[in-house]
Design brief:
The complex is a heterodimer of chains A (114) and B (114). Chain A is mainly β. Helix content of chain A is 0%, strand content 52%. Chain A is globular. Chain A starts with a strand and ends with a strand. By secondary structure, chain B is mainly beta. Chain B is built from no helices and eleven strands. In chain B, the strands form two sheets. In chain B, strands 2, 4, 5, 6, 9, 10 and 11 form a seven-stranded mixed β-sheet that branches. In chain B, strand 4 and strand 5 form a beta hairpin. Chain B is globular and about 40 Å long. The chains are: A mainly beta (114), B mainly beta (114). Chains A and B meet through strand 6 and strand 11 of A and strand 4, strand 5 and strand 9 of B.
Amino acid sequence: AQSVTQLGSHVSVSEGALVLLRCNYSSSVPPYLFWYVQYPNQGLQLLLKYTTGATLVKGINGFEAEFKKSEASFHLTKPSAHMSDAAEYFCAVSDPGGNNRLAFGKGNQVVVIP
Amino acid sequence: NAGVTQTPKFQVLKTGQSMTLQCAQDMNHEYMSWYRQDPGMGLRLIHYSVGAGITDQGEVPNGYNVSRSTTEDFPLRLLSAAPSQTSVYFCASSYSTGRLYEQYFGPGTRLTVT
């Protein structure tokens, strides 16, 4: 079974500083990987995804993530945090040969300090 | 397109009451699913459907029933609500299984069981 680990439920970052959210996965097959963002009282929105090919993936709102097979990781970064980045972020994994089921991490609540 | 819609937005139930959470999508997606979101737990899959007339259990199916009579609708039924079912419920949809398609999430239903 696939699983995702996100450490640190709450992450505080100063405005203008680097945002780094860590995601490690466990999968018996090469996975598809996702980052979703959830703004307060809203549903989830896809930030970016990795399927195959280039391991550095760029998403919306200036975010990017790098797939590292050797580390089983898919960390999310943004060079300069903005107040509007305050939200909860979820990493998720899917089995490419499976039935489109997503396994989510527990999430990171990002707080941006002015 | 309205995308994925969920009703109601908020609901309070007493223990033992039954209710149905509604989910509809107008994107002609074959795949639909229900998740529950609890603090510190991420999203967990309750039930999913790969097409009209076909449903299957996810990670946490106990206490919930689903059916899929049309492509557009995927209601989630609580037969006898329990306080442990207090949660935020999200419905999602995507195109087919077997290939990677982005899942689109509804805005959620916040359920409280007293």
